[in-house]
Amino acid sequence: MVPTQIKVSRLHKSYHDGEGRELHILKGIDLEISKGATVAIVGASGTGKSTFLHLLGALDVADKGKIEIDGDELSEMKRDEIARFRNQQVAFIFQFHHLLNDFTALENVIMPLRINNCPINKANKIAQDLLVKVGLEERLHHKPFQLSGGEQQRVAIARAISNSPQILLADEPTGNLDQETGQQIFNLLLELNRDYNITLIVITHNPALAASMQLQYKMADGLLHPITKIPIY
User: Fold this and answer.
1) Strands of 72-73's sheet in order across
2) Which of 111, 134, 189, 211: CA 20 to 30 A from 159?
3) What is the pLDDT of residue 83?
4) Which secondary structure element, helix H or strand E, spans residue 203, and what is its range?
């Protein structure tokens, strides 16, 4: 039996708009995800999908409820423990790659390793191996403006997994790409899930891509609803 890695209990999150009105975004989400699972979250814009992902990645704090990762509750972690969690256990991929424009693909992937005090020779080897893994062995020394959109996203993926995270959170990772390139990126994410047993949670508006995941949920009315057939928006 695969152990539960992520357990979310009665999770709530609200914000206030510019006029001081409270917007109750998440309204008591419950969710359990096993180690190595692939999960798609679909839903209309503004329903709280990105908010939920930010809470899972400790980029934001819930108003109520619990998020447990491998039995450790995020809200009970100290500041240095949260920083270590974000640096070592979880990684983000966004719609826009957020690469450092003045650095090569190799240097972009090396950066988080060096921040994590990895020796330069080891960091260089890890970064090179990952860029080969994502199909960029001929583009190591190219800067972002010299790469296509799909290549830039591949660099971002290599950078995200450089510190061997246990959980990969992807927010519309193919939303800025054409259909064929988006499918290639999605296939790459699934390959990394299989090869490294990384738990993969993806927000997407693409029903076909979401259908390739083991579990699919629709975010609506502040809750996650399990679905077996991805609706088309």
Assistant:
1) 22-34, 4-16, 64-69, 72-73
2) 211
3) 85
4) strand 199-203
List, as one string, the DSSP characters of 84-146: HHHHHTEEEE-SS----TTS-HHHHHHHHHHHTT--HHHHHHHHHHHHHHTT-TT-TT--GGG
Burial degree of 140 (CB within 10 A; 0-12, 13-18, 19+) = middle
Q: What is the domain partition of the chain in residue ranges?
A: 98-164
pLDDT value of residue 229: 52
Distance between CA 79 and CA 63 in Å, rounded? 18
**What's the CA gap between 173 and 8, in Å, rounded?**
23
**pTM here?**
0.89
**Of the candidates 87, 90, 89, 96, the residue with the CA atom closest to the CA atom of residue 155:** 96
Residue 187: both structure tokens together: 């296939």
**What are 223's two structure tokens?**
């809750």
Task: Report yes or no: 67 and 6 within 8 Å, Cβ to Cβ.
Answer: yes
Can you give the pLDDT at residue 143?
95
Using one digit for the tens of pLDDT, what is the confidence trace for 71-88? 889 989 888 888 888 878
Q: Which segments of the chain have a pLDDT < 50?
A: 230-233
- With b meaning 16 or more CB within 10 Å and e meaning fewer, what string describes 87-116? eebbbbbbbebebeeeebbbbbbbbbbeee
Residue in the block written with tokens 């290639």? 184
